[in-house]
């Protein structure tokens, strides 16, 4: 049998032993052994972003910006920073090695040659990211969406979430080591452990915003017609030799660009994003753009008016009735809540119930809770408890009653670890998932060794 990872708890010859042996064998302890994401560069980008957040805490923009002032409470801010950095890693990875010459959106908002500023957009949604911010939605641009495959997205989101969870768990009063399971078909996505606790994670994570890549074109594009050359139709899909151009990640709601330069180097665009976000001003530009979309998208769809409607157009799952449920952020997809709930039941029945001595807990891990859908789909289930039928016994002289020992009652969700709003039932886990401790540890320099190590992984 392969040795267990360092610090992995002992569990003895219990009925759950085969399943626990399998977990220990499949654990990717370093988080970097994956072929679908540049995990080392992702860790470096997270480290740079966390350091820049720390450096920005005293910046007046936290109180003077109408957006940042709404997300600047110390108990919530660092969790939202984690959610925003999750999206930044997803943005980087959607672009990394996946940009092609095909199907860029042509946009020239002025048809006057004297003032023309044509751009092309490599989009992850089905509309022009610029025009939708002030001119509303065009008809769906079929073929304009460049989303990675579901298999790749799963690897990206699991790794990104695990990196940020590592920072939370290293800072907590009861620290945990974090590893991911290197087999997508396995019951468990990630594992946390210390010498007397094992935490099994079901990851249901999805980015809120995937900003487009854009490039400025030297002149309007034309095509031959029977009446002579004519400028391309607005929002026509075109081919762009992107490797010959300067590119940017376009923060459409702020109308700002993060420069990405030319698409060169094995790690592009990670170093360029790191250079931008490592400056406190650059970090705040990105976080303000992200937070504005977050705040707008948090409003229930039927209650959105004005700017909130517009911001929703940039969010994955913005409201297209055909496919929005497949792309909603975090736990926003009801199918993910259902599947995640089943997995936590399975963790209790097949792992925890078969390990009488080692505490095993289950956690639903996500970047964002269901936001405006929370009340309808999650809230009333959060404190639900259950027990196997064999654990119940009759109550003497009360035939209409059954009794069960407290130790045999399991929470449906020991925790829902959402970066924006964690919900924790299990007292032990409340010592493991603690965002105020992360903020304090980060500010005191207690994470610098790990952050410096991660930052050194990015060229």
Please tell me about this protein's structure:
- This protein has 459 residues and is an alpha+beta fold.
- It has two domains: 17-30 and 162-207 and 332-436; 42-147 and 210-319, no CATH class.
- The protein contains 14 helices and 19 strands.
- It has helices at 17-26, 39-56, 61-64, 74-95, 150-171, 270-277, 280-298, 307-312, 324-327, 334-352, 374-377, 427-430, 435-443, 448-455, and strands spanning 27-28, 104-107, 119-122, 177-181, 190-194, 197-203, 213-216, 222-225, 228-231, 237-238, 247-251, 256-261, 360-366, 385-386, 393-395, 398-403, 410-411, 415-418, 423-424.
- It is elongated and about 95 Å long.
- The model has no long low-confidence stretch (mean pLDDT 93).
Largest sheet: 7 strands, mixed
Average pLDDT level? 93
Query: How far is the first residue's CA from the last residue's CA?
Result: 37 Å
Helix amount, in percent? 25-40%
Number of domain units: 2
Overall geometry comes to elongated
Task: Give the helices and strands, then pairings.
Layout (H helix, E strand, L loop, with lengths): L16 H10 E2 L10 H18 L4 H4 L9 H22 L8 E4 L11 E4 L27 H22 L5 E5 L8 E5 L2 E7 L9 E4 L5 E4 L2 E4 L5 E2 L8 E5 L4 E6 L8 H8 L2 H19 L8 H6 L11 H4 L6 H19 L7 E7 L7 H4 L7 E2 L6 E3 L2 E6 L6 E2 L3 E4 L4 E2 L2 H4 L4 H9 L4 H8 L4
Parallel strand pairs: 6-13, 13-18
Antiparallel strand pairs: 1-4, 2-3, 2-10, 3-7, 4-5, 5-6, 7-11, 8-9, 11-12, 14-17, 15-16, 18-19
